[in-house]
Amino acid sequence: MARVPFHYVDLRAFSYATEDDRRVEDALRTFLPEEFPVDTDTVEGHNGDRIATLSARVENADDVRHVLSELATLDEIDRVVRELDDRVDDNCALFLRLDKQAAFGGRVRLGEGLTLRAKVEAYPADRENAVENATEVLTRLRDERAETDGTERSHPAE
Fold it and tell me: What's the confidence (pLDDT) of residue 14?
């Protein structure tokens, strides 16, 4: 994939007092290039419990490509493409919620626990152009994955 139509990708996960921060970081690292820095901010919850926020902002084009290549393994990619009108906001940001437990096991699935926010390049910067660009890149990722896997994927109705 030559062109990367995202300015940056933010990844975030919470680690609650009942969770191991290292395991939550490992889940987040499923999407990140090797040795990529992860920031941790710890706060006290309403009941006095510890809550750590682990986050990473990926801005370098090669690193964004890495995140996208991991995202390409998402089995529900067709669903995401169909839902882009609902997943891209007026500020040209794409939002996905990913399964933290699956990510800890090295798998990529929609679910709860990890948040991905990607700022979509769009000129002029409006939601319609952002949806179009996100559709293009996610469809291309899906098709490249199908070629690599040797499988044929159905195209979502547009």
Answer: 97
